Structure formats: structure tokens, C-alpha cells
Amino acid sequence: MTIDRPTLTEDGTYQGTYRDGKVSGMTVDMTITSHGKLLSLRMVAVEGNLFVRSDALASELHLTKPWLLISVDSPNPEFAEIAMMLSAIVDGIGPAEHQPFAPAILAASDVGQDTIDGAPAHHFRALVDARSRRPRST
Amino acid sequence: MPVDVWLDELGRVVTTTTTQTVADQQVTSTNHVTGFNQPVTITAPDPADVDPL
Known about the structure:
The complex is a heterodimer of chains A (138) and B (53). Chain A is of the alpha+beta class and 138 residues long.
């Protein structure tokens, strides 16, 4: 995954396992460059827990151990809020989460045949209403 | 928001790109899948190495 903005670049590698279309475990290795500063980050989500490892973060928070457990049960409300936010992101990654967004596609076109990593691929382009809200699950 | 999607011959999404404007900056996000159904080992860190906050 790569996200580019003029003052911020994020680049990362993701590995995940899915069960019933939802993430059951994942690792993310990410580097974030902002205004010339580089931040390396590793995240592991497994068994409902999210762990983060970052030397810069450990230094900032004066941690004594390399890994940080980001838990919704944290007594620190800021970390509990971060945990809830990250959990929501992880819950939204699996293929089962894509289908509800189908109504947000306003138009789609068939661009044509292409090649990705030397293998044949077909290129489609869609215009998606980014303001469309995801339906609430019942 | 334009979204470009590339599917392989099995209909699997191999690459997506999105471009949107956030706070007057153009943000391009690219996701590139390099493997399907490959063995993955994901383990939690040793509890002795975890700082619970």
C-alpha cells in the first residue's frame, strides 16, 4: 500500500488472513515520511488484540518494552479511543465489507486489457460517491 | 472519487488506485496485491515484550 501527498508519504506491506470474509489476523509494516522525518511502524492484529512496535513511538512514550498493546480496555482514554478507531479499520478490511459499498458506485467503465507484474489483468474505472455512508449492519 | 481496479484472469483484485483531495492536497492511494493463498504466520509478541497502556 502506498499513499502519497506532497508532505507525507506512507508505504507499507500488509499480510492478512481472513475468516468468513473478515480479517482474523494481520501484520502491517509501514514507513511514514512526513516533512523529511521517517517513522517505521509494525502492527500485528491477532486474537482480537492489536500490537504496535515503533522505536520512535517507544521513545516518545518512554516505554520500557518494544511492543505496545493498543487495547479498548486501556485506562488511558486516548489509547482506548485509538484502539477503537484501529479496530474499526481492521474490521472494515475484509472482502465481506466491500459489498455494502456497491450502491456508492455512480458509474463504471471498462478501460481494457493491461498487464500487472507480467500477468494479464483487466482494468476497470469507477466513479464512487465518497460521501456515501456505509449502511449500518443489523 | 475515481477508483481504478485491475482484476486478474481469475477475477481477483490485484491493484487498486484512488485519488482524492484532502485538505487541498491530492492524495493518491495504491494497493497492490502480491500473493493469494500463500502461507502466512501471524503470532502475537511475547507478553514479556509488551507494554500495556
